[in-house]
Amino acid sequence: MSxxxxxxxxxxxxxxxxxxxxxxxxxxxxxxxxxxxxxxxEGYVVTDGEGTVQTLTTAGFRETPLRPGVVVWFEPGTVHxxxxxxxxxxxxxxxxxxxxxxxxxxxxxxxxxxxDPAAYAAAAALPDGGAPxxxxxxxxxRRDLAVSGFQALRAGGPSALADFHAAAxxxxxxxxxxxxxxxxAGAGRAAADTAAQLDALQRGDPGHLGDxxxxxxxxxxxxxxxxxxxxxxxxxxxx
Length: 239
Description:
Elements (H helix, E strand, L loop, with lengths): L13 E7 L14 E3 L4 E16 L2 E7 L4 E4 L4 E16 L10 E3 L3 H4 L2 H8 L11 H37 L3 H10 L1 H17 L18 E5 L3 E5 L5
Antiparallel strand pairs: 1-6, 1-9, 2-7, 3-4, 3-5, 3-6, 8-9
Helix pairs in contact: 4-5
């Protein structure tokens, strides 16, 4: 058995382990940074602690309780924020492995920040890219700025959310070609492989069954990276 991934995770997903921030944000709640994904569905498997995930969609604001054993997932366009009621830890499953790290996540900064790519980049930046050991207070500062924008989105109703979605798309427009390349090499490739396997099975061709491999990693490749919602233990998407 290999000690590293030599093939993508199932379906081209990404996996990480998250310990949600346990400090108080600017609105008095403990937890992470509200943000949205533009083309990735995200899922949580709660392993420890308690809390909620706050979500905002065109259907309105919602709070979903989190406790060990709960599985929650939400589609692109869902503004989401984790609230930690004590020891909240989650295994995160992310569609289109690699896209979130390539900018698919957009934080709910106020409109004037979203409208200025340079201002957004400065507000979102973390020391050393958020590598383990970086100053966590920078993550708290960007969280608090995003919380202020999130509060305005909740108060502004559907029109405010529509404006936020439009601003997020405009901000990330220059990255879309690169995202498509990542998708084609990841989830797109996984879907194409399944189609080819179905065709082979239809023909009675067992070739791909003889090429099966088993892959594993002994543990995270990185522990304690500063994420949007907490400290991340990350795993490789592929070898």
